[in-house]
Write a structure and sequence with these properties.
With 469 residues, the protein is mainly α. It is built from 16 helices and five strands.
């Protein structure tokens, strides 16, 4: 028990240290923001003083002219000359005071500028290794994923992050995924979640689901996402999946966690407190998925694009904690590596060849296959049975009065995702760069970042990946 108490005490100390570090970081951000505001005020004050100085110099010039005129004219009285001289002295004293204030302000501005420059250089030194090709590839993948799910238009380059800065799209995505998870749980309870079923939630004999008010808000941002004709294409049927042990724990957590919707302001505008509140709500929701610091990005990472890569990695981690719904191509490629391989019928060359073609497919989802008898199969839901035969180099399918190859037949009915091969090539380059480069990837603020898979599974993932080469 003493050892356990010591461990608990150590963990509490570590927690207190982490909380202290987070508090210090928050204070640093607040102090930095305060310095920026003070710098702007100082610059404004400097400009006002410059204008006052120029005005005083102009007044002095006018007084000197009047003094010269008074001296040169005999009718000017000595009292007038003395008054003008006193006025000149006052103006000169005022100019000297303004110049002293300007010197002080200049020193403070220089100090603040140097502080800002040091911080900017530190951030650049940490983030200078960011591969912009990697950022563009992930922007393209995630933008395409969100566009498919929500039925909205988004740019496919770095401007994609700017579109997320008001938080409305991120919160709508969160509520859509939560609603999908809620529907999945009901389908499982109703016995509708099978390896071949991709039909929607409106199934005969089942009670209609209640939609959360937060989803009704999300519909204002993405009205097409909840249409059954669109939603049914987002569902992925159940499939055999054997990830490493640590990732299984995450999968179990996803199944048992509480469904929590994300409140947000549908009218929020970029750069306003409402937008920051939306982003905070999304970040809070991410934590309910089991994503913790430093894998959860900050408000400034999105609102001010302080760390684009961290935002992309964070959204990828959100996608990894979903089920039965389409995911970004990177996440799908990760899952393909752990999918169970079908065991063909023993000594049946036809069955082995058919399943080999299917397992080479990178489609999301892979097309379903059902063997009806010797050389007789059905590909897809509600499809007509077809007769196959083995040829010298291909499997042939009976179509009408003729024959065509099985790959061509499947391509015509299950169109391949043309972007999947490009995504695989892009992410293979990223993995290669990671293995050949530094063992750590750090965020702009210095935090050790996640890499292309769940944090708990990182070492196993890379080790397994290297063994497969």
């Amino acid at each position: 028990m003493c050892a356990i108490d010591e461990v608990i005490a150590q963990l509490q100390l570590q927690l207190q240290e982490q909380q202290s570090q987070q508090s210090d970081a928050a204070k640093s951000v607040q102090e930095y923001d305060a310095l920026c505001r003070e710098l702007q005020l100082a610059k404004d004050h400097e400009q006002a003083l410059r204008q006052a100085l120029f005005s005083a110099l102009a007044s002095l010039e006018e007084v000197e002219k009047r003094l010269l005129a008074a001296t040169s004219k005999a009718f000017q009285t000595e009292e007038e000359v003395d008054r003008l001289k006193a006025l000149v002295d006052q103006l000169q004293a005022q100019i000297q005071r303004n110049q002293a204030v300007m010197v002080t302000l200049t020193k403070r501005i220089t100090m603040y500028a140097q502080t800002t420059l040091v911080q900017d250089e530190a951030e650049m030194s940490i983030g200078q290794e960011i591969n912009m090709e990697e950022v563009r590839d992930m922007c393209w993948d995630l933008s395409d994923w969100i566009k498919q799910l929500l039925g909205i238009q988004l740019p496919s380059n770095e401007e994609f992050i700017d579109q997320l800065s008001d938080g409305r799209i991120l919160c709508a995505l969160a509520n859509y995924l939560e609603d999908f998870e809620d529907e999945t749980r009901q389908r499982i309870a109703d016995g509708l979640d099978t390896a071949s079923s991709t039909s929607g939630s409106k199934t005969k004999g089942t009670a209609p689901r209640k939609i959360s008010p937060h989803c009704e808000k999300a519909m204002k941002v993405a009205p097409n996402a909840w249409k059954e004709s669109v939603r049914s294409h987002h569902r992925i049927p159940k499939y055999g999946y054997e990830p490493p042990e640590l990732e299984k724990q995450i999968n179990e957590f996803v199944k048992e966690r509480q469904v929590v919707y994300c409140p947000f302001d549908t009218q929020a505008v970029k750069g306003t407190p409402g937008a920051a509140k939306n982003l905070e709500a999304f970040i809070t929701w991410c934590r309910t998925l089991g994503i913790s610091d430093p894998d959860v990005f900050s408000v400034n990472d999105v609102a001010h694009q302080q760390d684009i890569r961290r935002v992309l990695y964070g959204i990828m981690d959100v996608a990894r904690r979903t089920r039965r719904v389409r995911v970004p191509r990177l996440v799908w490629l990760e899952r393909l590596r752990y999918m169970k391989k079908h065991k063909p019928i023993k000594d049946d060359a036809m069955d082995a060849a058919v399943w080999k073609i299917r397992e080479e497919s990178m489609n999301q989802p892979r097309f379903p296959i059902k063997r009806l008898g010797e050389n007789k199969y059905m590909f897809g839901e509600d499809a007509k049975p077809v007769v196959l035969r083995m040829a010298a180099k291909n499997i042939m399918v009976r179509v009408g009065g003729g024959w065509e190859t099985l790959p061509r037949y499947l391509e015509s009915r299950f169109k391949a995702d043309e972007k999947m091969e490009e995504a695989e090539a892009n992410y293979e380059v990223m993995r290669t760069d990671y293995r050949q480069g530094p063992s750590e990837i750090r965020a702009v603020n210095g935090d050790l970042m996640n890499f292309l898979t769940t944090r708990a599974d990182l070492e196993l993932y890379l080790h397994d990946f290297e063994e497969a080469q």
